[in-house]
Amino acid sequence: MAQHFDIAPLDASFGAVVTDLSLPRLDDAGFRALHAAWLDYALLIFPGQHLTREQQIDFARRFGPLEFDLAPISNVKSDGSLRNEADNDDVIKVLKGNMGWHADSTYMPVQAKGAVFSALVTPPAGGQTGWADMRAAYDALDDATRAKVERLSAHHSLYYSQSKLGHDPAAKPASEYSGYGFHDGPVPLRPLVKTHPETGRKSLLIGRHAHAIPDMADAESERFLDELVAFACQPPRTYHHSWAPGDAVIWDNRCLLHRAMPWDMTEPRIMWHSRIAGDPVAEAALA
Questions:
Q1: What's phi and psi for 200, nearest 5 deg?
Q2: What is the pLDDT of residue 2?
Q3: Residue 48: which residues within 8 A CB-CB, separation 6 or more?
Q4: Residue 75 contacts by C-beta under 8 Å, 6 or more apart in sequence?
Q5: Sign of the C-alpha dihedral, residues 251, 68, 242, 23?
Q6: What is the DSSP track for the chain?
Q7: How many CB atoms neighbour CB 226 within 10 A?
Q8: Residues 177-203: pLDDT tens digits?
Q9: What architecture is domain 6-276?
Q10: What is the mean pLDDT of the chain?
Q11: How confident is the model at residue 88 (pLDDT cuts 50, 70, 90)?
C-alpha cells in the first residue's frame, strides 16, 4: 500500500501542494503514486521539508539520472559575503537572466526532464519562482496559430539569451561563473510544439533561449516568439510561489516554463537546484 499524502490543486491550470509526507521516508509505492501525480500536475510543492543536500539529490535521482546533482542559485558568495548588484558580475547576470521565462537546458544537446528546487535562505519580500503551463497554452491557441506553430522550430542558445543582458562569458574567462550552458557545440534546433514522451500531451516549447526560426526574418522571428510567450504566460496558466525556508518543489521541464522574480539583492537568497537529465532520445535536439 502506498504511503498516504494529501494533494491540494493550485488555483491554476496545473500544480498542487503536497502535505503529510516526508520525502526522505517515501517508500516505493508512495513514490509511484507521487510520480503519477507529478505527470498529472507537472508541479508539486512540498512545504517545510528542510531537505539536506544528500536528501535532495537522493529524491531527484528517483526520477532518473541527473544532469547535475546540486548547484546553488544564490547571490551569496562561497565565503558568505553578498554579491554587489552594482558590480553586475557574471553570476548576477545569470541570476537576472533567470528572471525571464524559460525551460532548462533547451540550449544543450539534450533538454532536461525536470528539476528539484529547494529554499535555504529567502528574502523578506520578492524572490518568488513562477511557472507557466505550456500544455494549457497550446490548448488555448486559435486554430490558425496552432497550425502555424506545428510546422515551426527555433534555435535555443544561452549565448543568445544572456547577450540581451550584456553577458559575454568570453570577456571574463576567470569569472566565478562556471560557464555551464555556454558550450561550443551546434546550436540546438527544437520544434515549437513538443509532445510529452510519457503523457502524450502537446505543449509549446518557447521561452527566452528560443530564437532564429528557420526561414523567418530575425525581427519577425523574435516578435512572433515574444508574442507566444506573452500569450502563454498568463493566468490561469501561471503560478508564482512565495518561498519559505525548507520548501521544496519538483517540476516537469518538458511542459512548464519557469522564472525567478526580482528581489532586493542586499538581502541573501540561497536556493539549491538539482537537474534531472532528459531522455537522450525523447529530449534530443533536431540538430
A1: 80, 0
A2: 62
A3: 244, 246, 247
A4: 82, 83, 85, 91, 92, 95, 265, 268, 269
A5: positive
A6: -PPP-EEEE-SSSS-EEEES--GGG--HHHHHHHHHHHHHHSEEEETT----HHHHHHHHHTTS-EEEEEEEEESB-TTSPBP-GGG--HHHHHHHHTTS-B-TTTTSSB---EEEEEEEE--SS---EEEEEHHHHHHHS-HHHHHHHHT-EEEE-HHHHHHTTT--GGG-TT-SS--TT--SSPPPEEESEEE-TTT--EEE--STTEE--TTS-HHHHHHHHHHHHHHHSSTTSEEEE---TT-EEEEETTTEEEEEPP--TTS--EEEEEEEPPPTTTTB---
A7: 13
A8: 667 888 888 999 999 999 999 999 999
A9: 4-Layer Sandwich (3.60)
A10: 95
A11: confident
| Residue written as grid cell 517515501 | 26
3: cell is 504511503
Q: Which three cell numbers, joined as nine digits, stand for 170? A: 568570453
In the structure grid, which three cell numbers stand for residue 148, read together? 502555424
